[in-house]
Amino acid sequence: MKSFNQILLFILIVFTTLSCNTLYNSKYIEIEVVAPGKMKIPQDLKKVAVRYNNCNVSKHSFFGASYINGHPIEQVENIDSLASLVYFRYFVDEIEKQDFFDTVIILPPGDYSKIKVLDTINSPINTPDSLDNMQVQDIEKIYVKNFSESMFIIPNKYEFYNDSVYLHPETGLYTPSDLKEIADSTEADILISLDFFSSIDAIYSSKTSASESVLTQAYWNFFNLNEQKYYYSHNKIDTIYWSEQGDLPEDILNILPPPRDAVLNSADIAGTQFAYFLIPHWIKVERMYYGSGHVELQKTEDLINKGDWMEAAKIWKANSTNPNKNIAAKCKFNMALVCEMEGNLNAALEWVVDSYHTLGKKNQQHLDNCMKYINILSYRKQDIRRIEHQIN
User: Fold this and answer.
1) How far from the centroid of its chain's Cα atoms is residue 275's Cα?
2) Best CA proximity match to 300, nearest among 344, 324, 335, 342
3) What is the rounded CA–CA span in Å between residue 42 and residue 392?
4) Strands 281-290 and 115-118, how do they pair?
5) Strands, DSSP E only, in the chain?
6) Least C-beta-crowded within 10 Å: which of 94, 103, 234, 246?
7) Of 288, 366, 296, 367, nearest to 334 (Cα)?
8) Does an H or E element contain 29, and which?
9) Cα dihedral angle (117, 267, 245, 207), rounded to 10 degrees?
């Protein structure tokens, strides 16, 4: 039977080993990074006018409908129209917050509540084989054709219109004189117009599960006000999902959000996402770093809790040459995170690669952590190049 002193010595050895082996003491924090938009906006278009011009605001027999297992639910309220306002507001709030444009001007909204938009593009357009050979007017007509198809693919059975307007063959819901008036009154470089919005809510249930999805479609048109002509259009489609499980079908349906809440919630998410699609934006991401039971390194926890990462970095840098390779590898990895937070991605990559080579393949967990972080930093460098291209 082992003596008490032997058992105590064994416990001390294990404790010391664990305190030095920091490679399994991983922690996580959230940091903010800049992500690129998906669209390239010319650098000279920095003063933007934004307009809510949704022509699908009157109650529609299909858009704005809700379904349970394929059966329509009668809607008293025109949720689709409310959702379009939510969508637009969240989009505008986000592009103002991101501060990408020098100036954002919110124009008075269009009112199509009693106006029927009529299609003037009924015959197909002969599209050239090569886009390079297209004339500008051909591209503009194709844009109007695509826009009209989105609007008129499903005709509205309800007719509550007092007046009507025709799509302009080159500028859609706007006329050239409209664009000139906006350009003169705002001195903006670009007009971003929400010209069409729709949403559909659908719930499917079984005995033990149910799911709900809301599909939103927003057709945005962009006009170069310096030249007073059509520039670009985008048909943005998003789908938001909910899924629940339970013992009784009626209980599951009660857990899912009511159609009205689901549609409005989806609109605010989709509006924000389109702003992210359009311009560079700040997002929150999760990053890993190593904690430690080492006496000196424990001081960094208090510094991190105070948000003083630079003081913590001094301790990690001093221990990056520690004879204990586990401690050195961990400190180098943490230095990479500090460099990323400071915006120095090249230095971050150097530190994490050095951390990887400190142990090599001796520790699979650390190897995986390093490879994952190297990939993250590599993708971030690509994003930074795209952002610089978008800004410049």
Assistant:
1) 8
2) 335
3) 8
4) unpaired
5) 26-35, 47-52, 66-68, 71-73, 103-106, 115-118, 163-166, 190-205, 209-224, 229-245, 281-290
6) 103
7) 288
8) strand 26-35
9) -10
Nearest 5°: phi and psi at 129? -65, -35
Q: Can you give the pLDDT at residue 152? A: 58
Alpha-carbon torsion (299, 302, 304, 306), positive or negative: negative
368 contacts 390 by C-beta, under 8 angstroms? no
Residues 241-293: pLDDT tens digits?
A: 998 887 766 677 778 888 889 999 999 999 999 999 998 888 899 999 999 88
37: pLDDT strictly greater than 50? yes
Instruction: Take residue 275 and report the two structure tokens written for it.
Output: 């702003």
Q: What is the pLDDT of residues 340-349, one digit of tens each?
A: 999 999 999 9
- Residues 212, 255 contacting (CB under 8 angstroms): no
Following CA atoms 23, 27, 33, 39 in sequence, which dihedral angle do they give, to the nearest 10 degrees? 80
CB 243 within 8 A of CB 209: yes
Q: How far is Cα 260 from Cα 25, in angstroms, rounded to an integer?
A: 45
Sequence-separated contacts (24+) of 364-370 with Cβ below 8 Å: 365/23, 365/24, 366/23, 366/329, 366/333, 369/26, 369/288, 369/333, 370/333
Q: Which amino acid is at 328?
A: A
Residues in the chain: 392
Q: What does the alpha-carbon distance between residue 15 and residue 72 come to, in Å, rounded to a whole number?
A: 65
pLDDT at residue 127 above 90? no
What is the DSSP code (8-state) at residue 105?
A: E
What DSSP designation does 172 have? B
